[in-house]
Amino acid sequence: MMESMRNILLSATLLGASLTTPAYAETTLNALFMAQAAYSEADVRAMTDAFTKANPDVKVTLEFVPYEGLHDKTVLAQGSGGGYDVVLFDVIWPAEYAANKVLVDISDRITQEMKSGVLPGAWTTVEYDGKQYGMPWILDTKYLFYNKEILEKAGIKAPPKTWDELASQAKTIKDKGLSDAPIVWSWAQAEAAICDYTTLVSAYGGSFLKDGKPAFQTDGGLDALKYMVDSYNSGLTNKNSKEFLEEDVRRVFQNGEAAFALNWTYMYNLANDPKESKVAGKVGVVPAPGVEGKSAVSAVNGSMGLGVTTTSKHPDEAWNYVAFMTSQQTQNAYAKLSLPIWASSYEDPAVTAGQEELIAAAKSGLAAMYPRPTTPKYQELSAALQQAIQESLLGQADPEQALKTAAENSGL
Q: How many CB atoms lie within 10 A of CB 391?
């Protein structure tokens, strides 16, 4: 009897232990993403599920917010002492985040495989002052899209390789009555205009800053704005471009009203979709042109990265999650939605199938991505440049004076 009672008590003790002591200690990571991106919410969840299956001791709680709320959510959480372990960040924020110690410097975690395997231009997404504050994740740049049918009717055998050739081809198209305004841009007083301007600055070999001070008011920065104004005043550019954002550009191009458009990767598949577009099957894409003697192509970095916050209580697990989400295996599995950061992915048939023309353009464009100004005062600088572009297009100031004023109002 005593022996059987002892066994019952022992069994109860073991049962209690198994109920109260987990098989492993679970770490919970909180990650912040944006609701609209190259990767959909469902895709991010699927990627994350794959990570947690491979790492059963880690749980990841995902939060999605609109792009407009991404920056403020990150900063507010930081001010309150935590909240997120991993955050998605835009290419224009690393300087501010580094200055305010929002993100961990992960330079020593970057492996040789990462250094050699990731496209060089992609690294500018996460770098500031020679340090890396995350891994590039969403790769994006602006390409030159063109209407193959219009160019063929105009007798143009190949899309332009330089910005001067673009103007010349546009004039031929306009003179032959094939398009009233052959070129369309997103030049509204918004970040979109800065992206187009940056593309041209990269073509002309300009610099935004030198020794922390504005340098865009001379040399390539000035040449870029002069090109924009000349294109606008020539009548070759759609006059409404000064009020257009990227979706307006897509609408005009898809309606067959423009021969050329500068826009992001996403427009390629939408403009080729018969349900969306009147020009499906006629859409060509090449890298944005260069300037003879200065550049072969031009490109703005419109990418985003994943970083670990300085307030994370689980930086090692957070880094493992970032490394998984940005890995070549994960990115190749979703290459139809966002192009990979890995150079060798562009030789993989599973990645390139069905989008060969875009991939060919990406090989050059993504490798040449040029960053917008890297400064903690980016928001002030961007606003000043947006105003300079608008005033120049409207004829309220010449480019020299507009950029000089922008430099004075940049806060630098």
A: 19
Range of the domain at 381: 142-300+377-408
Per-residue pLDDT in tens (0 to 9) along the chain, 412 residues: 444 444 444 444 444 444 444 445 589 999 999 876 567 788 899 999 999 999 999 999 999 988 778 898 999 998 877 689 999 999 999 989 999 999 999 999 999 999 999 988 788 899 999 999 999 999 889 999 999 999 999 999 999 999 999 999 999 999 999 999 999 999 999 888 999 999 999 999 999 999 989 999 999 999 999 999 999 999 999 999 999 998 899 999 999 999 999 998 888 888 998 998 999 999 999 999 999 999 999 999 899 999 999 999 999 999 999 999 999 999 999 887 678 999 899 889 988 888 899 999 988 998 888 988 878 888 899 999 999 999 999 999 999 999 999 999 998 8
Q: Tell the residue number behind the tokens 């495989």, with chain if given.
A: 113
- Say yes or no: 219 and 308 in one domain: no
Note the pTM of the prediction, 2 decimals: 0.80
Residue (of 242, 165, 239) closest to 196 by Cα position: 242
Answer for the pair 393, 229: CB distance below 8 angstroms, yes or no. yes
Domain containing 126 — which CATH number? 3.40.190.10
Same domain, residue pair 197 and 136: no
Q: Distance (Å, rounded) from C-alpha 266 to C-alpha 268?
A: 6
- The answer to whether the CB of 285 falls within 8 A of the CB of 143 is yes
- CA 381-386-391 angle, to 5 degrees, is 125
